[in-house]
Amino acid sequence: MNKSEIRKAVNKAVFEFAESLGYMVDDHGEGGRVTFVKHDAKTIDDSIEYSRSQQSTCTLNWASKATKADETKIEKFIDHIVKIIK
Q1: What is residue 22's predicted lDDT score, i.e. its pLDDT?
Q2: Residue-wise pLDDT tens digits, 34-81
Q3: DSSP readout, 23-69?
Q4: Within a 10 A sphere around the Cβ of 20, how many other Cβ atoms?
Q5: I need a surface site. Which of 29, 71, 72, 84 has the fewest CB within 10 A?
Q6: Is 67 exposed, middle or buried (0-12, 13-18, 19+ CB in 10 A)?
Q7: Those residues with Cβ within 8 angstroms of residue 15's Cβ, 6 or more apart along the chain or in another chain
């Protein structure tokens, strides 16, 4: 696999994992960043931003503990899947 194929495979796996945690994948059409937000989220503050190119996540400091815990799960999954695919 070349770098582009690896990146696409990792991103696809991350999107599927986020969906398994109950998140919708909201692609704003910008290509670089994607937002993971739960169907029952009361505020956008409880969302997780994902960078396709850097394959990393980010949440707001004031996001809920549950959202921060899910971000940690996604980050660990990213580390795991990158090791497997590469």
Answers
A1: 96
A2: 999 999 888 999 999 999 999 999 999 999 999 999 999 999 999 999
A3: EEEEE-SSSSEEEEEETT-SSGGGEEEEETTTTEEE--TTS-HHHHH
A4: 9
A5: 29
A6: buried
A7: 25, 34
Q: Which helix (H) or strand (E) holds 79?
A: helix 65-85
Q: CA-CA distance, 68 to 28, in Å (whole number)?
A: 22
Residue with tokens 């503990």: 65
For residue 13, give every residue at least 6 positions away whose Cβ sits within 8 Å of its Cβ, in sequence order, or none: 77, 81, 85
Of 44, 52, 50, whose CA–CA distance to 73 is shortest? 50
Q: Is the pTM of this model over 0.70?
A: yes
